[in-house]
Automatic annotation (TrEMBL):
Its EC number is 1.1.1.86. NADP(+) binds at Y25, G26, S27, Q28, R48, S51, S53, G133. Pfam families: KARI_C (PF01450), KARI_N (PF07991). This is Ketol-acid reductoisomerase (NADP(+)). Mg(2+) 2 binds at D190, E226, E230. Residues 2-181 form the KARI N-terminal Rossmann domain. It comes from the Archaea. The active site is at H107. It comes from Haloprofundus marisrubri. Residues 327-340 are annotated as: Disordered. Residues 327-338 have a biased composition (Acidic residues).
Length: 340
């Protein structure tokens, strides 16, 4: 079973006298940088000269430098720019890493798929909050924690894990719990999860359900509510009480129908396809496809995005969400809920 670390397992003194360079001030960057600073850690934010994020970081009272200057000043370089630009940013700062410095990530893609190959004399770690950055910041300010992951890829100092845990503590993650993992496990489960279930699987399930109802002559509005809008209520129940909590809350008819029909929809064929998707994650096929897609300027990605935007369910949904102001009120209320 996985090891989980809490505040008492993390020793903040491993950051004493160290400077952290946070490269990027987006979703994760702004949260890590501000939480570290509020925890008393020396932080310098690394942004390109013309960065649109520069003003925000300065307004938040942080020191801002270029990525190269920040890395030169730092003992720990936290790489929080988008995954697709990390290799080129790394190339620029590589020479600033001294023996014993730490290169740190919040996702394992570039290390696991060898897009970044760090020198052997630096520590390479991961501290990955399992949450969007704005919640990492908000939870910290509310004296709450955000669950996270910690992993060590390279440990030249013998203190890589202790230092990563100190960092996790400083951004508030050990308040909630930090699960020990590896770069490989984090990268592969993350990619599989978002492809098969969270982002890919769920949107396809929603669209196919919607199309089936509309093709059979039901109104798009009804199909939208049944297949998309209500999903949130079901997911909230699962989040709070697992599958059992959800089954307990829906009607017996819904429970019996779901238990008898669910496996008919996600059948052995779907399972084989999931295994295939996992294999493409494991053997690097997906990673190569995504790397090449980026090198080519993202032609397929743009096309797929456009197609998704113009799907009927999006057009109908936008209208309906505009009409039903209560939906908006409800979603902003639930955003403020405790994320634990
Ligand atoms: P963002 O897309 O929010 O990062 C944007 C920041 O990166 C901006 O400050 C931007 O500055 C800067 N940036 C972009 N391109 C460059 C460049 N070429 N050179 C220098 N700076 C650049 O990233 P995320 O926070 O979403 O992701 C960061 C890491 O965290 C990734 O590894 C991601 O996988 C991981 N992660 C993300 C989570 C999330 O919820 N978003 C959750 C857990 C992990 P500018 O204004 O100059 O463009
Ligand atoms: Mg240095
Ligand atoms: Mg993910």
């Amino acid at each position: 079973d996985a090891t989980i670390y809490y505040d008492d397992d993390a020793d903040a003194t491993y950051l004493d006298g160290k400077t952290v360079a946070v490269l990027g001030y987006g979703s994760q960057g702004h949260a890590h940088a501000q939480n570290l600073a509020d925890s008393g850690v020396d932080v310098v934010v690394g942004l390109r000269e013309d960065s649109a994020s520069r003003a925000a970081a300065e307004d938040d009272g942080l020191e801002v430098a270029t990525p190269v200057e920040a890395a030169a000043a730092a003992d720990i370089v936290s790489v929080l720019v988008p995954d697709t630009v990390q290799p080129s940013v790394y190339e620029a700062i590589e020479d600033e890493l001294e023996p014993g410095d730490t290169l740190q990530f919040a996702h394992g893609f570039n290390i696991h798929y060898n897009q970044i190959q760090p020198a052997e004399d630096v520590d390479v770690t991961m501290v990955a909050p399992k949450s969007p950055g704005h919640l990492v910041r908000r939870n910290y300010q509310a004296d709450q924690g955000t669950p996270g992951l910690v992993a060590v890829y390279q440990n030249t100092t013998d203190e890589a894990k202790e230092e990563a845990l100190a960092y996790a503590k400083a951004i508030g993650c050990t308040r909630a719990g930090v699960v020990e993992t590896t770069f490989r496990e984090e990268t592969e489960t993350d990619l599989f999860g978002e492809q098969a279930v969270l982002c890919g699987g769920v949107t396809s399930l929603v669209k196919t359900g919607y199309e089936t109802l509309v093709d059979a002559g039901y109104s798009p509005e009804m199909a939208y509510f049944e297949c998309l809008n209500e999903l949130k209520l079901i997911v909230d129940l699962m989040y709070e009480g697992g599958l059992g909590g959800m089954w307990d809350s829906v009607s017996d008819t819904a429970e019996f129908g779901g238990l008898t029909r669910g496996d008919v929809i996600v059948d052995d064929h779907a399972r084989e396809q999931m295994e295939e998707v996992l294999e493409q994650v494991q053997n690097g096929t997906f990673a190569r496809e995504w790397i090449v897609e980026n090198q080519a300027g993202r032609p397929s990605y743009q096309q797929l995005r456009e197609a998704e935007k113009s799907h009927d369910i999006e057009v109908v949904g936008e209208e309906l969400r505009g009409l039903f102001a209560w939906a908006e009120e409800e979603s902003s209320e639930s955003e403020g809920e405790d994320e634990k």
